[in-house]
Design a protein that fits this description.
- The structure holds two protein chains of two kinds.
- Chain A is mostly helical.
- Chain A is built from two helices and no strands.
- Chain A is elongated, with a radius of gyration of 16 Å.
- Helix content of chain B is about 35%, strand content about 15%.
- Chain B has 15 helices and 15 strands.
- An eleven-stranded mixed β-sheet of chain B has the order 1-3-2-6-8-7-14-15-11-9-10, with helices on both faces. In chain B, strands 4-5 form a two-stranded antiparallel sheet. Chain B has a two-stranded antiparallel sheet with strand order 12-13.
- Chain B is globular.
- The chains are: A mainly alpha, B alpha/beta.
Chain lengths: ~60, ~475
């Protein structure tokens, strides 16, 4: 299996036309940092054991 | 009138107006004078509604003169974060862009309910742009400054709300809390803040951020004012689809019920690391005052906080998608670039984060089978300096703006009621807060414990002496 490495810049390049957005170089660096942070946090969510039957809570009642 | 109105609680003001010791008009005029004098230093208010406040005060005085019964908050000035609709004002939500919106035709429902209880709206308050902020630094209106040391942050995003209350410009104010935006500034400014249960108070007439997590609530210098204002805001409102079908459950009658029978534990694990010693010392102080010796851990908290973070990024980006496309240059760059990053995240990440939300809610509900109140730090540190971008937690340098709420996010994630209480250390100018966390719908218990701590003197909310 190919080892996956997250590349924020590739994600940015692919997403910008789809979203209809442009980025300055300064903003690109900041967005890259935020995406890398998000990907790190995603790992905690991705790796957390959840049953397939776990229900999402898009409309939430406490 | 010789009353020090800036030091008075809303309930003390109500008593003074009711007894004739002061008129509502005198209270409002003194409040407006103080706002005029101190707001340039504090950056708390973005709009002062002097004319309507004076008219409202005159109406209250007229009611008293006619011998009519006054409302439970009669004469008490308050203000609202500027994401609440105020009739005649554009609801700017801390942004430049929203100033193009038509003026609101009516007040947000919670402001209207407070005015129906006799409180007097004196203005709208500064906030972090679109509530995506924990610092209280607004790129368009300037920062709110901490009344206990103007060089320091208020925290955000309810920054003006905390500055106004801690600076003695109003006894209480309303804020919003998506990931900690009431509790973080309450902690850094040394006041009490209540984030009610998700679905308790109507959000109608407020500008949203993350609908899954958005809460509204009061900040105040006394627990009595928190309870009185919270009680006045309860009630059904069909316009907020997330509002739960709960009866009005007043908290004021049981506020002095004390600690008897309550099981209180402090949180370990995630909540006992990643902060400065002051954060944990504050929890020690509160736990000691409450006689809480038990420590428990909540499983999965790190993943829960991560889930809240990701959902916030994506829902926030979805809300602002068209503005990001059409008016990107008008955003605060720090907010805009976070939102753009959120627009790029896969949808499957959010769905899994929402699944984890349900899982975490169930685990925390199990913990509440054995305890009534949980204790945790409100912020990882005291107020950083205005302009400071990073801090070091557990040896790791981290951005302040997204991370001041790392202890608050897990509880807004699952909608629990939380009261933040202010802790002071002898010889230290800045306070820090502790969260009192309850099971869903137990605002009464978190307020009761806060009141017990206040009466004991373990927590307090003095006004900052703004030079």
């Amino acid at each position: 299996m190919t080892k996956f490495e997250f590349d924020a810049n590739r994600l940015i390049d692919a997403s910008l036309p789809l979203l209809g957005l442009e980025l300055s170089e300064a903003s690109r660096a900041v967005v890259e940092l935020h995406l890398e942070t998000a990907e790190l946090l995603w790992r905690a969510v991705r790796d957390f054991p959840l049953e397939d039957e776990a229900e999402p809570a898009p409309v939430y009642t406490a | 009138m010789s009353l020090a109105t800036n030091l008075m609680s809303a309930l003390e003001i109500r008593a003074a107006v009711d007894s004739g010791e002061a008129s509502a008009r005198e209270i409002v005029e003194a409040t407006l004078e103080r706002i005029e004098a101190l707001n340039p230093k504090l950056g708390a208010f973005t709009d002062v509604t002097a004319e309507r406040a004076i008219a409202k005060a005159a109406a209250i005085d007229a009611r008293r003169a006619r011998g009519e019964t006054l409302g439970p908050l009669a004469g008490a000035p308050f203000a609202v974060k500027n994401l609440f609709d105020v009739a005649g004002l554009s609801t700017r939500a801390g942004s430049l862009i929203n100033r193009d919106r038509a003026p609101a035709g009516a007040d947000a429902i919670l402001a209207a309910r407070l005015e129906a209880a006799g409180a007097i709206l004196v203005g709208a308050l500064n906030m972090g742009e679109y509530a995506y902020d924990f610092t209280g630094e607004n790129a368009h209106d300037g920062p709110s400054c901490n009344p206990h040391d103007l060089r320091h942050m208020t925290g955000g995003s309810s920054s003006g709300s905390a500055a106004a209350v801690a600076g003695g410009l109003a006894p209480f104010a309303l804020g919003s809390d998506t990931n900690g935006s009431i509790r973080v500034p309450a902690s850094l400014c040394g006041i009490f803040g209540l984030k009610p249960t998700y679905g308790r108070l109507s959000r109608a007439g407020t500008f949203p951020f993350v609908a899954s997590f958005d809460h509204l609530g009061p900040l105040a210098r006394s627990v009595g004012d928190l309870a009185a204002s919270y009680d006045a805001m309860q009630g059904p409102d069909a316009r907020d689809l997330a509002q739960a079908a709960r009866p009005i459950e007043p908290t004021a009658p049981g506020l002095d019920g004390g600690l008897a029978g309550l099981r209180i534990a402090r949180l370990g694990g995630y909540f006992a690391r990643g902060g400065e010693p002051a954060a944990f010392a504050a929890v020690d102080r509160v736990a000691g005052a409450l006689g809480a010796t038990q420590t428990i851990e909540l499983p999965g908290t790190e993943a829960a906080r991560a889930s809240a973070y990701l959902i916030t990024m994506v829902e926030g980006a979805a809300l602002h998608a068209s503005r990001l496309r059409d008016r990107a240059d008008e955003f605060d760059a720090e907010v805009r670039d976070r939102l753009i990053a959120g627009a790029m995240l896969p949808g499957a990440w959010v769905v899994r984060a929402q699944k984890l939300r349900g899982w975490y809610r169930e685990r925390v509900a199990e913990a509440f089978a054995d305890v009534d109140i949980l204790l945790a730090p409100a912020t990882p540190c005291r107020a950083p300096l205005i302009g400071q971008k990073t801090f070091v937690l557990d040896g790791r340098e981290m951005l302040i703006r997204p991370n001041l709420g790392l202890f608050t996010q897990p509880f807004s994630f699952i909608g629990l009621p939380v009261c933040t209480v202010p802790v002071w250390t002898e010889g230290v100018a800045l306070p820090i807060g502790v969260q009192l966390i309850g099971a869903p719908w137990r605002e009464d218990l978190v307020l009761r414990v806060a009141r017990a701590l206040e009466r004991e003197g373990a927590v307090r909310a003095p006004i900052g002496e703004v030079a």
